[in-house]
Design goal:
Layout (H helix, E strand, L loop, with lengths): L3 H12 L5 E7 L23 E9 L6 E3 L2 H6 L2 H6 L1 H4 L4 E7 L1 H4 L3 H6 L2 H18 L3 E5 L8 H15 L5 E6 L3 H7 L2 H7 L2 E4 L11 E2 L18 H10 L7 E6 L1 E6 L9 E2 L15 E3 H9 L3 E4 L8 E4 L2 E4 L3 H13 L4 E5 L16 E4 L6 E4 L19 E3 L2 E9 L2 E6 L4 E4 L4 E4 L48 E4 L6 E6 L2 E6 L4 E4 L4 E4 H4 L3
Helix pairs in contact: 1-13, 7-8, 8-10
C-alpha cells in the first residue's frame, strides 16, 4: 500500500489528461483528532488538488441562512482564514465551502426552505454575502438527499443560486447520491445539471455494516454477486449520464478510507457473512470505518491482504474477525483511467490529504501467494522493525513513556502493548501519566543513534496559553467500560477520560486548560465544554 499522498498525486496526474479538475473534500473536524490523525489547514498541500472543499457550514433552522458549523474553530481559531491562505501558495487553487453534510441534512429545515420561494431568495442573497465576506470561491451543496417532495424546490434553488452567483464569478457544485432511486425521486437532472459547475457523485458507501454481508463499499465494475443492483461505479455514473447529466460536469467519487465489518467465519471473500461493524480505530474512533492511516497500520502489523485479479473491486484486508475493504493505489489508478476514458470532467476524493495522514502509511509486501479457495492474490506484510525495540508495558498497567519518542506513550491490554501519540503540541509527561504541553515537559528521549529527540513545533494557529494543571484525586470507585474499546468521559472529573482496550479501563488526563468532549472523543478547550 502506497502513501495517501501517492494516491492523490496519481489521481491528479492521470486526471490531467482529460478530467480537468481534482476535487478534494477536507473535513475540518480532523483538527480535533489527536496525534497522527490531526490534519490542520496548514497540513493541506495546495498543489495536490485543483479544488478544495471546506466541510461544513450549516443551515440555521430559525433564519434559514448559512452559518458557521463550529464558530469556535471556524471563527475564533480562524480556520476559515487559515484554509483560505492556501491560495497564497497556489493562486490558481479554488476554495469552496460545503453546506450541509449527513447530520445537518437530517433536519427538516432544508425541506422547509426549498418549499418557500421567499426563504430560498433570502438564503441566496445571504449566501453570496457570506461567501464574499469570508473569501470563498463558491459553494458546494451537500444536502443528503432531496426527497420527491423536495424535487421541484431543489431544482429551483440551484437555478436561483446560479443566477445570483454568475455576476460574482462564484462556483456552484453539489455532492449527490449514488442511488438511482434517489436520483429519480429528488433530482430534476437536466435542470440541476444546467445550474451546477460540477456534480460530485458520491460513488462510495455503496455497502456498509448495516448489511448482513461484508462487501467492498466502492466497486469499480459490476460483479455476478451484485445481481444487477447498480451498486458499482460504472453503473452509478451511467445512471447520472443517462438521465441527462453531461459527462464534462460529472465528478467521479473515489473514497480514501475503508468500510469495516466483523466477519467471524473462515470465508472472508466478499460478500462474506458479517456480524455488524468492526471495532473502531484509534484515529477515526468510528465503528465500521477506518482511515488509510489505520488500514496501513493494520497491514504493517500483519493483516492478510487480498486483491481481485479481475480488477472489479479494490483489496480487502483481515485479521481474525476484523475485515476492511478499501481502494489502493492500483484501484485509484484504474478508476481514474476509467474516468478519463469516459470523458468525465473531474475526479473527486473524500478523505484527508495532509502530512499527518501520509508520513507513516507506506508498507512493503514481502510475500505473495495465490490462494486455492478463490481466484485472488493474498499478500501478508510483516510488522515493521525500524526504530529499535518497541517500548515495554508498564508494570503498573498504566501509561508508560516511549524512550525513543517523547510524544508517544504505551497502554497495555491483554499483555499486548498499544502505542498512542499525544495531541499536536504536547508530550507525554511521565510524572503525571498523561500528555502535557511541550513547554512543561523535559524531553530526554534518545532515538536510534543516541541523539536527543527533538519535537517539531505545531503549525497550527497560535492560541492563548492555558493555565497550569492542577492535581486530581484518584477515582472513588472503579470505572466500567461501556464497550470493550473506545474513549469515554471520566464521570468524576471532566478534565480526565478513560481509554478502554479489550474491556480494560485506563485513566488519563487532558492537557492543562482543556477538558474531555465526548461529542468529538477528544480533549477540547475547557471553556467550550464547561469544564472549569
Amino acid at each position: 500500500m502506497e502513501p495517501v499522498r501517492s494516491l492523490l498525486l496519481l489521481t491528479a496526474l492521470l486526471g490531467a489528461a482529460a478530467a480537468t479538475e481534482v476535487i478534494c473534500y477536507w473535513g475540518s473536524w480532523s483538527h480535533y483528532r489527536t496525534g497522527l490523525g490531526t490534519v490542520t489547514a496548514e497540513d493541506l498541500d495546495p498543489h495536490l488538488c485543483t479544488i478544495y472543499v471546506y466541510s461544513f457550514a450549516k443551515l440555521s433552522p430559525s433564519t434559514y441562512q448559512m452559518e458557521m458549523f463550529d464558530p469556535w474553530l471556524d471563527g475564533h481559531l480562524r480556520n476559515y482564514e487559515r484554509f483560505l491562505s492556501l491560495r497564497k501558495r497556489n493562486p490558481s487553487l479554488k476554495l469552496l465551502l460545503a453546506l450541509g453534510g449527513w447530520t445537518d441534512s437530517l433536519h427538516p429545515k432544508y425541506s422547509i426552505m426549498l418549499a418557500s420561494p421567499a426563504l430560498r431568495a433570502s438564503f441566496t442573497a445571504g449566501a453570496v454575502q457570506f461567501l464574499q465576506q469570508h473569501g470563498f470561491d463558491g459553494l458546494d451543496l451537500d444536502y443528503e438527499y432531496p426527497s420527491a417532495a423536495d424535487r421541484a424546490g431543489f431544482a429551483a434553488w440551484v437555478t436561483e443560486l446560479r443566477a445570483a452567483f454568475q455576476p460574482h464569478g462564484l462556483l456552484l457544485t453539489a455532492a449527490v447520491t449514488a442511488s438511482a432511486a434517489k436520483i429519480d425521486a429528488g433530482y430534476d437532472v437536466p435542470a440541476v445539471s444546467a445550474a451546477l459547475d460540477f456534480i460530485n457523485v458520491m460513488a462510495y458507501d455503496l455497502h456498509g455494516p448495516w448489511e448482513a454481508t461484508a462487501d467492498h463499499h466502492a466497486p469499480l465494475l459490476p460483479r455476478a454477486s451484485d445481481a444487477g443492483s447498480g451498486l458499482d461505479l460504472q453503473s452509478v455514473m451511467e445512471a447520472w449520464r443517462s438521465r441527462g447529466a453531461p459527462a464534462s460536469k460529472l465528478a467521479v467519487g473515489v473514497p480514501l478510507y475503508g468500510k469495516s465489518w466483523t466477519v467471524p467465519g473462515a470465508d472472508k471473500g466478499p460478500p462474506a457473512a458479517g456480524r455488524g461493524a468492526a471495532r473502531a480505530g484509534p484515529v477515526t474512533r468510528e465503528a465500521g470505518t477506518l482511515s488509510y492511516l489505520e488500514i496501513c497500520h493494520n497491514v504493517r502489523a500483519g493483516w492478510s491482504v487480498v486483491t481481485d485479479p479481475a480488477g472489479k473491486i479494490g483489496p480487502y484486508a483481515y485479521s481474525g474477525d476484523q475485515w476492511v475493504g478499501y481502494d489502493d493505489t492500483a484501484m485509484v489508478a484504474a478508476k481514474t483511467r476509467w474516468a478519463v476514458s469516459q470523458g468525465f470532467g473531474a475526479v473527486m476524493s473524500l478523505g484527508s490529504a495532509g502530512p499527518s495522514n501520509t508520513t507513516t502509511t507506506s508498507t512493503t509486501s514481502t510475500t505473495s501467494t495465490t490462494t486455492s479457495t478463490s481466484s485472488t492474490t493474498s499478500t501478508t506484510a510483516p510488522s515493521p522493525t525500524e526504530g529499535g525495540p518497541a517500548p515495554a508495558c508498564s508494570a503498573s498497567g498504566g501509561a508508560a513513556p516511549d524512550p525513543r519518542d517523547c510524544a508517544t506513550y504505551v497502554l497495555c491490554a491483554g499483555g499486548a502493548a498499544h502505542t498512542f501519540r499525544c495531541p499536536q503540541g504536547t508530550l507525554f509527561d511521565p510524572s503525571r501519566g498523561y500528555c502535557n504541553w511541550a513547554s512543561l515537559v523535559r524531553c530526554s528521549a534518545a532515538p536510534e543513534g543516541g541523539a536527543t529527540a527533538t519535537v517539531k513545533p505545531s503549525t497550527a494557529a497560535s492560541v492563548p496559553a492555558p493555565p497550569a494543571p492542577t492535581s486530581t484525586p484518584a477515582p472513588s470507585r472503579p470505572f466500567t467500560c461501556p464497550s470493550a474499546d473506545g474513549w469515554f468521559a471520566d464521570p468524576e472529573d471532566c478534565h480526565r477520560f478513560y481509554k478502554c482496550l479489550s474491556g480494560a479501563a485506563h485513566r488519563a488526563a487532558c492537557p492543562a486548560g482543556t477538558g474531555w468532549n465526548q461529542a468529538i472523543s477528544s480533549c477540547d478547550w475547557a471553556a467550550r465544554v464547561g469544564c472549569v
